[in-house]
Design goal:
The chain contains 6 helices and 13 strands. With 220 residues, it is an alpha/beta fold. The chain folds into 2 domains: 141 residues, Rossmann fold (3-Layer(aba) Sandwich); 66 residues, ACT domain (Alpha-Beta Plaits). The strands form 3 sheets. A 6-stranded mixed β-sheet has the order 2-1-3-6-12-13, with helices on both faces. The two termini are 27 Å apart. The structure holds ribose-5-phosphate (R5P). The site of ribose-5-phosphate has 17 residues, from helix 2 and helix 4. Ribose-5-phosphate binds next to helix 2 and helix 4. One of its GO terms (molecular function) is ribose-5-phosphate isomerase activity. Its EC number is 5.3.1.6. Keywords: Isomerase. This is Ribose-5-phosphate isomerase A.
Length: 220
């Protein structure tokens, strides 16, 4: 099966979990775009959606959905998002599209985080995908030096500015054996806004699309 067909299958499975009358969180990326296609069909029984990026906000609006400011909701019953890498422990690397900071915020508010992915995203150990860090522009060189001390090889994502006006460093060469520990350590570097390890708030459920069907992994 083509990768896009797998992404769509995962998105369709996630659409079955959308509660009636709810405001839900919606992530960013090509897999989530298939989920937004599904939401278009469900829009009459959805109160609204909180977007994790400007791109998702635009797409939700084009689909006829009401986009809600996160500050006006106390809790989200569901957050659906993709990943660049995901393990069986439901820890992830995210931020390939540069939306990691807003994604981490919306995920923190959500009661249930459902990760949708095709089988190519499943890994045993995180780190083959370059780890994105959102960084305050004036701290770029300092943060890069600190990352090099940790054994990473940082590279500035050229010509890219996040929705928050910051830059992205993509870091190769990190062996992420303890994802929660590295997530915390990287957050301590002054100038780092967010790093793309999602381990302190992992997904609750992974919907992993394979040729044999969509596997449900996790507790939810
Ligand atoms: O910043 C982007 C997000 O973290 C995405 O969820 C991630 O990059 C996966 O995107 P895609 O579904 O396009 O592979």
């Amino acid at each position: 099966m083509q990768q896009d067909a797998l992404k769509r299958a995962a998105a369709q499975e996630a659409a079955k979990l959308v509660p009636d009358g709810a405001i839900i969180g919606v992530g960013t990326g090509s897999t989530v775009n298939f989920f937004i296609d599904e939401l278009k069909r469900l829009k009459h029984r959805l109160e609204g959606a909180v977007a994790s990026s400007v791109a998702t906000e635009q797409r939700l609006k084009e689909a006829g959905l009401r986009v809600v400011d996160l500050n006006s909701v106390d809790e989200l019953p569901l957050y659906v998002d993709g990943a660049d890498e995901v393990t069986r422990h439901l820890t992830m690397i995210k931020g390939g599209g540069g939306a990691l900071t807003r994604e981490k915020i919306v995920a923190a508010v959500a009661k249930k985080f459902v990760c949708i992915a095709d089988k190519s995203k499943l890994v045993d150990v995180l780190g083959k995908f370059p780890l994105p860090l959102e960084v305050i522009p004036m701290a770029r060189s300092f943060v890069a030096r600190q990352l090099a001390r940790l054994g990473g090889i940082p590279q500035l994502r050229q010509g890219f500015v996040t929705d928050n006006g910051n830059v992205i460093l993509d870091v190769r060469g990190l062996t992420i054996l303890d994802p929660p520990a590295l997530e915390s350590e990287l957050n301590q570097i002054p100038g780092v806004v967010t790093n793309g390890i999602f381990a302190r708030r992992p997904a609750d459920l992974l919907l992993l699309a394979t040729e044999q069907g969509v596997q449900h992994m996790g507790a939810a």
